[in-house]
Amino acid sequence: MDKKLIIVSAPSGTGKSTIIQWLMSEHPELRLSFSISCTSREPRGQERNGVEYYFLSADEFRRRIDSGDFLEYVEVYPGRFYGTLKSQVEQQSAEGQTVVFDVDVLGGLRIKEHYGDRALSIFIQPPSVEELRRRLTARGTDAPDVIEQRIARAEMEMSYAAQFDCCVVNDRLEQAEAETYRLISEFLGTGR
Length: 192
Hints:
Blueprint: E1 5-9, H1 16-26, E2 32-34, E3 37-39, E4 53-55, H2 58-66, E5 70-77, E6 80-85, H3 86-94, E7 98-103, H4 105-115, E8 119-125, H5 129-139, H6 144-158, E9 166-169, H7 173-188
Parallel strand pairs: 1-7, 1-8, 2-7, 3-4, 8-9
Antiparallel strand pairs: 3-6, 5-6
């Protein structure tokens, strides 16, 4: 039987990566394993090929796009790609892992379209645009104009929330974590 897959998407700053990390560390019974994406950027710091990412040249990335090897991909800047290989997901799945995707909203929808009922798609939503702006500002990592770009993108992404199987509002982190856990464990049939 094909392993089920979990897709978690959200606007930047909504807490999806925090929720996924919590699920992976606190709930090993879910057997969640990150989808290892590809990128055409150079490795940073201690990043290793095949661990954090698969590092491809921009030309190799384009060739694999043309071959239809990706479930989803995005070109963030000219020549700077990120994407998810179908073969990588199937390999992880064949090894008995429940692959979890931490992807942007449009990528999440493409993956869901490909896998259908085999995948659960969860949209993590901020309680409001104002709260999202406050969180992004509190991070202290982006200039005000970048924050406004992220807010504009978040508003566009939030318009897709209804296309996901479930929506979890991250108003209080502990509640959002518990709700996401409940949804995933019911989908996987591992509920207590």
